[in-house]
Design a protein that fits this description.
- The protein contains eight helices and ten strands.
- The chain is of the alpha/beta class and 226 residues long.
- The strands form two sheets. A six-stranded mixed beta sheet has the order 6-7-8-3-9-10, with helices on both faces.
- Strand 7, helix 6 and strand 8 form a beta-alpha-beta unit.
- Helix 3 crosses helix 4 and helix 3 packs parallel to helix 5.
- The chain is globular and about 45 Å long.
- The two termini are 32 Å apart.
- Bound molecules: adenosine-5'-diphosphate (2 copies).
- The site of one adenosine-5'-diphosphate has 12 residues, from helix 1.
- It comes from Cellvibrio polysaccharolyticus.
- This is ABC transporter ATP-binding protein.
Length: 226
């Protein structure tokens, strides 16, 4: 059973723009998978649909066999999403943002506190736990987004351009962190427009352009073609 299975996904925005023209995709458990494509290709739209923030026009999405429409609450438990834009309250304290998220997933208070500590330490944010989010640097905010997406220990983590606008040093440490999480068994999918990022992290890749998947292969084979 696939970690993510997308079939014939279509999106036509209210404006009439066909952002997705029937894409299909399967990602196996344990994979580290890249969705690579230029700006405007449809990457964020795809992630928006998977996270139920964007309404799809047609097609199906299953997460570990759970349909995001029919089995929403199970699918939600399996899934962690790191969107591109910071969407937490800048006035809340770092640890409160994470505790709220844990509450949303129904975690008991003690369990939640343990996980908050684990992820803040792993991501180098422990010293900032009592600080309001607005006082964090851009890179710290990015890491807070990752901690929040992981708080319920999802089996599938999807990140939308996780290192966009992040400096090279932080990018490398985020890569190391993601590799660790993947080695511990979490399936990871990230979107990127940097081939270098896909090459450094991922085993398999889908190339999306203008709302269509134009290639679906291993990174190894992709690099041999170039
Ligand atoms: P839906 O079909 O999912 O309801 P809409 O087409 O109504 O989506 O658009 C949602 C919002 O995104 C609107 O406020 C719209 O102005 C905005 N929007 C329109 N075009 C773009 C674009 N090219 N990129 C990002 N946002 C856009
Ligand atoms: P990517 O993440 O690959 O840059 P997107 O999924 O954001 O691509 O966008 C795919 C296409 O859909 C683009 O042409 C974009 O302008 C358009 N688009 C995105 N959001 C909206 C929206 N809310 N309303 C109308 N068009 C949109």
């Amino acid at each position: 059973i696939a970690a993510l299975s997308i079939r014939n996904l279509e999106k036509v925005y209210g404006s009439g723009h066909r952002a997705l023209k029937g894409i299909s995709l399967e990602v196996q458990p344990g994979d580290f998978y890249a969705v690579l494509g230029p700006n405007g290709a449809g990457k964020s739209t795809t992630i928006g649909i998977i996270s139920s923030l964007v309404r799809k026009t047609a097609g199906t999405v299953e997460i570990f066999g759970k349909d995001i429409d029919k089995d929403f609450s199970e699918a939600k438990q399996f899934l962690g999403i790191v969107p591109q834009e910071f969407n937490f309250s800048m006035f809340e304290k770092v640890e409160d943002i994470l505790l709220q998220q844990a509450g949303y997933y129904g975690l008991a208070r003690q369990d939640a506190k343990g996980r908050v500590e684990k992820y803040l330490k792993a991501l180098g944010l422990w010293d900032k736990r009592r600080s309001p989010a607005r006082t964090l640097s851009g890179g710290m905010k990015r890491r807070l987004m990752i901690a929040r997406a992981l708080i319920h220990d999802p089996k599938l983590l999807i990140l939308d351009e996780p290192t966009a606008g992040v400096d090279i040093e932080l990018r490398r440490s985020m890569w190391d962190f993601l590799r660790d999480i993947n080695e511990q068994g979490t399936t990871i999918i990230l979107t990127t427009h940097y081939l270098e990022e896909a090459e450094s992290l991922c085993r398999n890749v889908a190339i999306i352009d203008n709302g269509e998947i134009v290639q679906n292969t291993s990174i190894k084979k992709l690099l041999q073609q170039l």
